[in-house]
Amino acid sequence: MRVLILGGDGYLGWPTAMNLSVHGHEVAVCDNYLRRRLCREQDSEALFEPPNLHQRARRWAEVSGHEVAVRIGDLCDWAFIDALFAEFQPEAVVHYAEQPSAPYSMKDRHTATVTFQNNLMATFNVIQAMKAHVPDAHLVKLGTMGEYGTPNIDIEEGFLEIEHKGRTGKFLFPRAAGSLYHTTKVLDTDLLWFYVRMWGLTVTDLMQGPVYGLETDENEGHPDLYPFLNYDEIFGTVLNRFVVQAVAGYPLTVYGKGGQTRGYLNIRDTLQCIRLAIESPAPKGELRIFNQFTETFSVNQLAEIVRASGERLGLDVEVKSLPNPRKEMEEHYYNPTHTGLMELGLEPNLLTDAVIDRLMRAVMEHRDAIDHDRIFRGVKW
Question: Which domains occur in the chain, in start order?
Answer without folding.
Answer: 2-229+266-293+337-349 (3.40.50.720)
